[in-house]
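Design a sequence for this backbone.
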């Protein structure tokens, strides 16, 4: 949710001014359940609603997001249910108006000391903005947002006793995405079943060596306007990751690394299988108690959003958060993503940099100002775009 409320537009640049967030104190219900209602709202100015290379659409956007969260715990086990929605209204581009709904549930139960079971599920009636997802580069041609329904269900068990150097984690799940028929294109709807198993050995109090295997079975289908559901261009595939890594932590540093190999095997003989490196790196360093530098790097494969077989994606980011005083803090960030689309001649390079300045006037009232620059270069001209957003903002919590 954008936390800035009112925006002022200057030449090719957007200025945001304010956002409102209201969170009520939890309401005690029977059986130890706490109910927390909340409301977020924002008003923003977007200078390129559809991320278009040409004919950019500028518009004000107002969003309202109410939510109800039910939670209960006994300091060992935890259960929660969150129901929320978000509506967005564009002043100059009513075709982009949307209403999303979300239902999310989670539970964590401790079976024994060091052994716990978790379950998470969600249902989302959401959308992809024009110019994102399957409409990248052609956002202006759509009649409205690309709506979908997501379903996700997963469970896991963790064994991490204090007096044993061995640690184990096992997770299983399934998810699906089904689009409304806005784009008559095969290879959009999909379902996957996945699992992960990791085993680790703790060396001392700070270091754990990890081996891990991840598996996903991904099935595509597309419901045409009339007729049966057909296989989607032979995109059904299986992904298997073989990983090894290390986790290390100290008073000032947290470090996690997984490195290995991804195998992507297609059911269709006309698709070329893929074997390549994969990694996941996350690190945070706090040289001072009020200053933290965070780094992340990942290489993975994404499912296609067009005519390619799949996307080989490499993402790197860095963020520096610093509190200059009790009231005044800044956040400086940069993210770099490179996509190589296998099966077609397309490469994308997206960079986003931002600076945010925060001032905590008093509890519940803070001001912010900043600047974000986004640039994408692609071998396809219609995928190129630039976006600059500057803002000043207000956040009020009650």
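Sequence:
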């Amino acid at each position: 949710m954008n936390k800035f409320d009112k925006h002022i537009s200057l030449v090719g640049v957007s200025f945001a001014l304010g956002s409102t967030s209201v969170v009520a104190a939890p309401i005690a219900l029977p059986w130890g359940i706490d109910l927390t209602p909340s409301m977020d709202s924002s008003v923003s100015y977007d200078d390129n609603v559809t991320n278009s290379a040409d004919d950019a659409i500028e518009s004000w956007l107002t969003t309202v997001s109410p939510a109800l969260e039910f939670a209960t715990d006994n300091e060992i086990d935890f259960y929660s249910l969150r129901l929320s929605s978000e509506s967005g209204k564009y002043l100059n581009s009513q075709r982009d108006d949307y209403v999303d709904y979300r239902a999310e549930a989670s539970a964590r139960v401790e079976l024994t000391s060091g052994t716990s079971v978790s379950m998470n599920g969600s249902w989302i009636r959401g959308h992809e903005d024009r110019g994102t997802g399957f409409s990248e580069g052609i956002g202006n041609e759509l009649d409205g947002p690309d709506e979908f329904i997501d379903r996700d269900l997963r469970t896991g068990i963790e064994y991490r006793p204090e007096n044993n150097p061995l640690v184990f984690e096992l997770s299983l799940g399934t998810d699906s995405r089904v689009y409304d028929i806005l784009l008559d294109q095969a290879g959009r709807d999909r379902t996957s079943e996945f699992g992960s198993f990791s085993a680790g050995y703790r060396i001392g109090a700070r270091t754990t060596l990890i081996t891990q295997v991840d598996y996903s079975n991904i099935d595509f289908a597309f419901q045409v306007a009339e007729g049966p559901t057909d296989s989607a261009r032979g995109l059904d595939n299986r992904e298997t990751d073989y990983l090894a890594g290390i986790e290390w932590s100290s008073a000032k540093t947290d470090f996690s690394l997984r490195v290995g190999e991804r195998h992507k095997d297609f059911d269709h003989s006309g698709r070329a299988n893929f074997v390549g490196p994969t990694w996941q790196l996350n690190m945070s360093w706090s040289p001072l108690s009020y200053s933290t530098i965070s780094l992340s790097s990942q290489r993975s494969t994404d499912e296609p959003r067009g005519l390619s077989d799949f996307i080989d994606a490499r993402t790197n980011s860095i963020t520096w958060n610093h509190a200059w005083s009790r009231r005044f803090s800044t956040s400086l960030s940069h993210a770099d993503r490179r996509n190589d689309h296998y099966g077609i001649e397309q490469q994308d390079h997206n960079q986003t940099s931002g600076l945010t300045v925060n001032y905590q006037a008093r509890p519940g009232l803070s001001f912010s100002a900043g600047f974000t620059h986004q640039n994408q270069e692609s071998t396809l001209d219609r995928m190129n775009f630039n976006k600059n957003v500057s803002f000043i903002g207000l956040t009020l919590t009650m």
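The domain at 5-396 is CATH 2.40.170 (Maltoporin; Chain A).
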